[in-house]
Specification:
Blueprint (H helix, E strand, L loop, with lengths): L5 E8 L5 H10 L6 E6 L6 H7 L11 E4 L8 H13 L7 E5 L6 H7 L3 H4 L2 E11 H5 L7 H10 L8 H12 L2 E5 L6 H11 L8 E4 L7 H4 L28 E8 L5 H15 L1 E8 L6 E8 L2 E9 L8 E8 L4 H9 L1
Parallel strand pairs: 1-4, 1-5, 2-3, 2-4, 5-6, 6-7
Antiparallel strand pairs: 8-12, 9-10, 9-12, 10-11
Length: 343
């Protein structure tokens, strides 16, 4: 008897595009499906796992969320990813579907290739690769160079090549996708969404659709059940990094700052916005303690946009300390950033 392969969906997307929000929506609308979630974090703190663990979604149990070591799934395939997959498949009640949330800086292609490893090839298939796109950030040109300026520079320098690591990762995620979700569609108008879809289409494979979404709220039957078996044709999917054996995120760095109480949230937000501008920080994520409030205050920043909200009560024995992960391109002035945050 031939066993059906367990489908896995790979969700990629740039820093802060809204992958975690989309996954919460999926889990809340699982309709009885057993969904296991694998989170691959870039940074010192499992922040996305934290957000999902505190979600209070019925049936979303601690054991259903597995977090891989920091960094990039594709670089830890042999010693981390494979045992995790085998462990999930060997459970008494194996999942009906596995969702893998990659770090915002991970390249999807090496990960999909890992599904061809002999240990799991007969048991798992990649149902589809979904790229979640931060529509307002694309509208602001955040992941692309100023095309005219770059072109002028290229004309002046024969040796200059495609040199924006951010843009390369972004394009690689699009090139590998089976479905592109233009998230935060409520922040830009309908005409702009059409323009964004059009501008991205040259980086998408023929036939791949781009659909708008608000807070990642897309029908689960649209996201799961693509039945693409992406691992079978993965070599044909182009990537900027095809000539590389591995990719270790040398272009990016992250660090965590432990924060004291924040009494002035407005001032703190202004400080974060200023830091992002001065130091070209790509992403901020974490939480702080506000004296007199029994709930944790979450901070999320993408480029100049800062989001914050109270998410859950502090645990009884939980230390009420703030933590903020700062992610940017290599060369961030850690001392200056820390000093500003702690002041």
């Amino acid at each position: 008897m031939r066993h059906m392969k367990t489908p896995a969906t790979v969700i990629t997307g740039f820093l802060g595009a809204g992958k975690t929000t989309m996954i919460r929506h999926l889990l809340e609308n699982a309709d009885g499906r057993r969904i296991a979630l694998i989170i691959n974090e870039f940074g010192d703190m499992g922040f996305d796992r934290e957000l999902l663990n505190s979600c209070g979604i019925e049936g979303c149990e601690e054991g259903d969320i597995v977090e891989l070591a920091n960094g990039c799934i594709c670089c830890t395939v042999a010693d981390d990813f494979l045992p995790t997959m085998e462990k999930l498949l060997d459970r008494d009640l194996p999942p009906d579907h596995i969702i893998i949330e990659t770090s915002g800086l991970a390249l999807p292609k090496p990960l999909v290739k890992a599904f061809n490893w002999p240990e799991i090839r007969s048991r798992l298939t990649v149902d589809g690769v979904i790229a979640v796109i931060d529509a307002p950030a694309v509208a602001e040109g955040r992941f692309a160079d100023d095309v005219d300026a770059v072109e002028a520079e290229r004309q002046a320098d024969e040796a200059l090549d495609h040199d924006n690591p951010l843009e390369e990762v972004f394009e690689d995620q699009l090139l590998c996708a089976d479905l592109v979700v233009l998230n935060k569609a409520d922040v830009v108008d309908g005409e702009a969404i059409k323009d964004i879809a059009e501008s991205l289409s040259s980086h998408m494979r023929a036939g791949v659709k781009a659909i708008p979404a608000v807070k990642g709220a897309i029908d689960i039957d649209v996201l799961l059940g693509l039945s693409v078996a992406a691992e079978d044709g993965i070599e044909a999917r182009k990537s900027h990094h095809d000539s590389e054996d591995d990719h270790d995120h040398d272009d990016f760095e992250s660090f965590t700052v432990t924060l004291d109480d924040v009494t002035d949230l407005g001032g703190f937000e202004a400080c974060l916005a200023q830091l992002t501008k001065v130091h070209d920080i790509l992403r901020l994520k974490g939480f702080v303690h506000v004296p007199g409030k029994d709930m944790r205050h979450v901070i999320q920043g993408v480029g100049p946009r800062i989001q914050r909200y109270f998410d859950r009560p502090w645990g009884e024995n939980e230390e009420r300390l703030g933590h903020l992960v700062v992610i940017g391109q290599r060369g961030l002035d850690r001392e200056a950033i820390e000093a500003a945050l702690l002041s």
